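hiii so um. not sure if this is the right channel but i have a protein structure encoded as tokens and i wanna go backwards to a sequence. like what aa goes where. can anyone help
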């Protein structure tokens, strides 16, 4: 692992102290104070990690001096020897924590996310599985205090969803969910299967960082907005007014249809939110391709055509194929207990990025 130099550590701590002093002056404009506070919030944890590395290195130097000094008696040298062994265990962990803190952050990590789940191969069983996945993410979100807002849903006849789109809001949502994009496969005996045969079905998950107004500029002239009557079961009030909205972004051809709300204005607002998020993600992918070329990370490209995970009901296991991790806790995972699984993906991503740093 790359060793962070004492000079780099001094720079980090000096910048933290400089920002702290600036905020204490009281002379900053409100805009400048917000900018300085934001930078301080980013630098402070890095400086804290740097300070710990510096402290341990300094202690190690002092202890080596005690050990090598012939004037010290056997008890002092034994104490120094024991402390050196302890610090030699702690120092690599502290250096790794500092290296991780210094890794470039995905600017979207702290954002809310748009979660899109679509039934794939497998007909009714795939739709039921899409419903299982959506409930899994809802429970995971609930456990972390996040808010899930349903944007649109196309229910299947026997249950589950042909397609469901939701907004997930909370601290660090995209950072935790971004590795979920891809094809999720299920192996189980459907309730409609008389012969007890195991069927394989699939659903596609896409997790996109939600865009803010400042991220994507959309000109009205680039949009074609159509208003029409919602489709669905007859007799519902949702179908008695022209409330459905279809928005086409002419330059890209992206089309968003929203008809779940009875209000035309609410449908339009949700459709614009989805459109803005998809345009933002398209730009992120373009920039990523330019910067990273054809490289794929260890946890996969996030391409929604890539098979990433299998949920095997007969064996009660979940296997993530990107990191060769199998957990025999399928019922618990479907109940939203995903911390071990997501934690392993985040750790693998960190390890891969650290290896690139060394290279």
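sure thing!! here u go:
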């Amino acid at each position: 692992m790359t060793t962070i130099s004492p000079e780099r550590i001094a720079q980090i701590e000096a910048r933290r102290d400089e920002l702290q002093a600036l905020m204490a002056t009281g002379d900053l404009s409100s805009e400048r104070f917000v900018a300085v506070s934001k930078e301080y919030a980013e630098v402070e944890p890095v400086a804290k990690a740097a300070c710990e590395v510096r402290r341990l290195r300094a202690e190690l130097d002092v202890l080596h001096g005690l050990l090598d000094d012939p004037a010290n008696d056997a008890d002092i040298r034994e104490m120094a020897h024991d402390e050196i062994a302890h610090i030699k265990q702690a120092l690599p962990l502290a250096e790794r924590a500092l290296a991780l803190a210094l890794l470039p952050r995905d600017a979207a990590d702290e954002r809310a996310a748009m979660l899109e789940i679509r039934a794939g191969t497998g007909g009714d069983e795939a739709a039921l599985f899409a419903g299982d996945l959506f409930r899994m993410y809802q429970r995971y979100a609930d456990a972390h205090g996040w808010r899930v807002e349903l944007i649109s849903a196309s229910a299947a006849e026997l249950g589950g969803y042909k397609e469901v789109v939701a907004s997930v809001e909370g601290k660090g949502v995209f950072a935790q969910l971004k590795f979920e994009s891809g094809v999720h496969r299920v192996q189980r005996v459907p309730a409609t299967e008389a012969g007890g045969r195991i069927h394989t079905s699939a659903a596609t998950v896409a997790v996109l960082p939600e865009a803010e107004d400042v991220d994507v500029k959309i000109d009205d002239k680039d949009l074609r907005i159509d208003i029409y009557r919602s489709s669905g079961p007859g007799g519902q009030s949702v179908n008695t007014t022209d409330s459905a909205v279809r928005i086409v972004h002419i330059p890209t051809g992206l089309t968003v249809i929203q008809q779940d709300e009875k209000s035309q204005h609410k449908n339009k607002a949700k459709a614009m939110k989805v459109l803005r998020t998809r345009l933002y993600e398209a730009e992120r992918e373009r920039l990523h391709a330019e910067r990273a070329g054809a490289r794929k990370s260890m946890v996969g490209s996030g391409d929604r055509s890539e098979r990433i995970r299998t949920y095997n009901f007969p064996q009660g296991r979940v296997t993530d194929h990107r990191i060769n991790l199998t957990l025999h806790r399928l019922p618990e995972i479907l109940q939203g207990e995903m911390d071990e699984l997501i934690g392993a993906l985040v750790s693998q991503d960190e390890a891969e990025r650290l290896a690139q740093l060394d290279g």
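oh and The longest strand covers residues 199-209.
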